[in-house]
């Protein structure tokens, strides 16, 4: 994964076409920004790059960040898949960086370190101490310091602009099909497979318990998903299998909230493996059943509904 730490950026004699943003979700609006940046790079013979931030700026500025749509590693993978030879600079968002004045950020970071020649930002982008800088300031600084700045008008649909916050709200409300339309792919949650109580295996439906999930969760319920195993190395598996996913408490057996996935057709141990669940459809809410047999019968129906939903789902590419 071509991630470039700020401390090791190479000298770029040809210069860089750079797009800056938080890029949470790498949604269709972000994709339009990246596409325009790649086109500028090709037109002027530059290297195409993106700059994103870690952690989320809100964590430092307000002490609390929203649930993410994409963890950092996946965000970088999605950005890098945008075009050949496209790579990503991950800028640490610490107190020292946050205190840079707008001109300091442009001159010290963008010009002297990144070697920017063409700069792309969303029209509403703010930067510098106290968010004092705006897109017009980039244009002004660029005229002085030798680069061209482009304030890209925000993409959207009939309901408004594509935005991470809008998608986050849709996911939280369980509107997965609408979230998918804005993302260009299903919303996904990911984490590590941890040991549970093993109860699913005893009723014929072994489940993978997912821990360490950082992404925005949908409402409690049962979902049809496509599961993707994530190896420990940098290359992710592109093989997806249907998975019936339970999110929330388990009322029939009086167990606390969990995220469990029954991977349909998969065999073998996957403890401590990374697992990503691409959520396709909400099947039902949570119900307390009258005993294990009733629960088993409903899970059978959920598994069939998951297989049907997976077969009917539009294909998508996951890097």
Mind telling me the CATH class of the largest domain?
A: Alpha Beta
Q: What fold name goes in the CATH topology slot of the largest domain?
A: Rossmann fold
Number of domains: 2
The CATH architecture of the largest domain can be given as: 3-Layer(aba) Sandwich
The mean pLDDT is 90
Structural class estimated from helices and strands:
alpha/beta
- Low-pLDDT stretches are none
Q: What value does the Rg take, in angstroms?
A: 22 Å
Q: Give the fraction of residues assigned to helices.
A: 25-40%
Q: Helical segment tally?
A: 10
Q: Largest sheet, described in full?
A: 6 strands, parallel
* Strands side by side in the biggest sheet: 1-4-3-2-5-6
First-to-last CA distance: 11 Å
Shape: elongated
- Strand elements, count: 14
Summarize the helix and strand pattern as letters.
EEHEHHEHHEHEEEHHEHEEEEEH
What tags apply to this protein structure?
Elongation Factor Tu (Ef-tu), domain 3, six-stranded antiparallel β-barrel, alpha/beta, 28% strand, single chain, Rossmann fold, elongated, six-stranded parallel sheet, 319 residues, 32% helix
């Amino acid at each position: 994964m071509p991630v470039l730490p700020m401390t090791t950026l190479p000298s770029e004699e040809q210069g860089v076409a750079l797009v800056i943003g938080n890029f949470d979700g790498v949604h269709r609006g972000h994709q339009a920004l990246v596409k325009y940046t790649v086109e500028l790079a090709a037109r002027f013979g530059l290297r195409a790059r993106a700059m994103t931030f870690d952690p989320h700026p809100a964590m430092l500025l307000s002490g609390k960040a929203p649930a993410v749509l994409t963890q950092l590693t996946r965000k970088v993978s999605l950005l890098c898949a945008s075009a050949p030879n496209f790579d990503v600079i991950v800028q640490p968002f610490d107190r020292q960086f946050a205190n840079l004045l707008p001109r300091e950020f442009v001159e010290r970071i963008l010009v002297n370190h990144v070697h920017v020649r063409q700069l792309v930002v969303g029209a509403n982008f703010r930067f510098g101490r106290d968010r004092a800088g705006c897109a017009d300031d980039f244009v002004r600084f660029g005229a002085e310091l030798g680069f061209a700045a482009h304030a890209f008008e925000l993409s959207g649909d009939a309901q408004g602009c594509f935005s991470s916050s809008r998608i986050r709200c849709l996911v939280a409300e369980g509107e997965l099909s609408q979230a998918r339309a804005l993302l260009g792919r299903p919303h996904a949650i990911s984490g590590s497979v941890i040991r549970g109580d093993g109860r699913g295996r005893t009723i014929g439906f072994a489940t993978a318990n997912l821990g360490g999930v950082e992404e925005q969760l949908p409402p409690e319920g049962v979902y049809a998903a496509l599961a993707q195993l994530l190896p420990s190395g940098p290359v992710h598996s592109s093989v997806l299998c249907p998975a019936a996913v339970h999110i929330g408490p388990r009322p029939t057996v009086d167990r606390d909230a969990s995220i469990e996935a029954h991977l349909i057709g998969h065999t073998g141990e996957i403890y401590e493996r990374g697992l990503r669940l691409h959520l396709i459809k909400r099947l039902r809410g949570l119900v307390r059943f009258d005993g294990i047999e009733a629960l088993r019968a409903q899970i059978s129906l959920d598994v069939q509904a998951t297989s049907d939903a997976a077969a009917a789902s539009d294909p998508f590419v996951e890097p």
